[in-house]
Write a structure and sequence with these properties.
- It is built from 11 helices and 9 strands.
- With 324 residues, the protein is of the alpha/beta class.
- The protein has 2 domains: 164 residues, Bordetella uptake gene, domain 1 (D-Maltodextrin-Binding Protein, domain 2, 3-Layer(aba) Sandwich), CATH 3.40.190; 99 residues, 3-Layer(aba) Sandwich (D-Maltodextrin-Binding Protein, domain 2), CATH 3.40.190.
- Helix 2 crosses helix 8 and helix 6 crosses helix 11.
- The radius of gyration is 21 Å and the shape is globular.
Length: 324
């Protein structure tokens, strides 16, 4: 009898983790956006969270934790319990550029997270305030070279995707305009609309509506082909600077050591969101580029992080830019 009870007890203990895992999630999930509300990462996160919450049967609540170019929020998730209830919507800045920018970065994007899925890639776009005296990107380049000391650009913070893209443009043109960092690309866009900054280099998802409404002068898209949502904005190759190619991305991560079955469940919910017609249309209408099936795996995201670190860290170090 004792042996039978022991066997039954052992069996129940062995089953307990499996039961717990199959019931995930049992409470709301927090999706940390490491920037202020209104920017690209925030928009993508909210679109994904809405659909994922319905798939998972629990709310996915977006929480904006801005600061230090997004690294404050990213570090919070890296240090969170690996139970699937605290996630990160990171991007090129927090998961790649941060390695080159912060000598004392508190986390390693390659080892301190479990990749879940790349949600949306976003072509970069240069937009000037309406009263900047330039007609197109060619005129803008001439004007910038002649007036760099007087001009400024806004970004979502030191090391953000918007900052990196403008920094890349600076390096190509050999100019050093003033950088005005904000706590997210949303506030930077507001500053552009208010005339406090002369231009921004931003991801399409956040700024396409501004260009469509003629509230800002869309000068160039930093990709090889024009975007259907803003067909009148030429490419960098068409405007004489083919080297200016930049694409941002926004991707979901969990803390390191989050169980594989939880990561797989979150990945499946994220995939379902990108298959949803309404969610896809919203992202595509904002100029996002969605990953194909092969690009929607955790492994593909892990490789993206490693390759982007290899690409951007030398650019940052050659520019001599650091952040504290």
């Amino acid at each position: 009898m004792k042996r039978l009870l022991f066997a039954l007890g052992f069996g129940f203990c062995a089953l307990a983790p499996a039961v717990a895992q199959t019931t995930y999630p049992t409470k709301p999930i927090t999706l940390v956006v490491p920037f202020a509300a209104g920017g690209t990462t925030d928009i993508v996160a909210r679109l994904m969270a809405d659909h994922m919450g319905r798939t998972l049967g629990q709310s996915v609540v977006v929480e904006n934790v801005a600061g230090a170019g997004g690294t404050t929020g990213a570090n919070r998730v890296a240090r969170a319990a690996p139970d699937g209830y605290t996630l990160l919507m990171g991007n090129l800045g927090t998961q790649a550029a941060s390695v080159g920018l912060y000598p004392k970065l508190a986390y390693d994007p390659r080892t301190d997270f479990e990749p879940i899925m790349n949600s949306a890639s976003t072509p970069m776009l240069v937009v000037a305030k309406k009263d900047l005296p330039v007609k197109d990107f060619r005129e803008f380049v001439v004007y910038l070279k002649a007036n760099a000391a007087k001009l400024n650009y806004g970004s979502g913070g030191v090391g953000s995707t918007s900052h990196l893209t403008c920094l890349f443009l600076d390096s190509l043109l050999g100019v050093k305009p003033q950088h005005v960092p904000f706590r997210g690309s949303g506030p930077a866009l507001n500053a552009l609309l208010g005339g406090q900054v002369d231009y921004v280099c931003d991801q399409t998802v956040a700024i396409v509506p501004t260009v469509q409404a003629k509230e800002g002068n869309g000068l160039v898209v930093a990709v090889q082909n024009r975007l259907p949502v803003i067909p009148d904005v030429p490419t960098s190759a068409e405007q004489g600077l083919p080297q200016f190619l930049a694409t941002g991305w926004n991707a979901m991560f969990a803390p390191k050591a989050t169980p594989k079955d939880i990561v797989d469940k979150l990945n499946a919910a994220a995939r379902a969101a990108l298959k949803d017609a309404a969610t896809r249309k919203r992202l595509l209408d904002l100029g996002a580029e969605l990953p194909d099936d092969a690009g929607q795996t955790p492994a593909a995201l892990g490789e993206l992080v490693r390759s982007e670190i290899d690409k951007w860290v030398p650019v940052i170090r050659n520019a001599g830019v650091t952040a504290q």
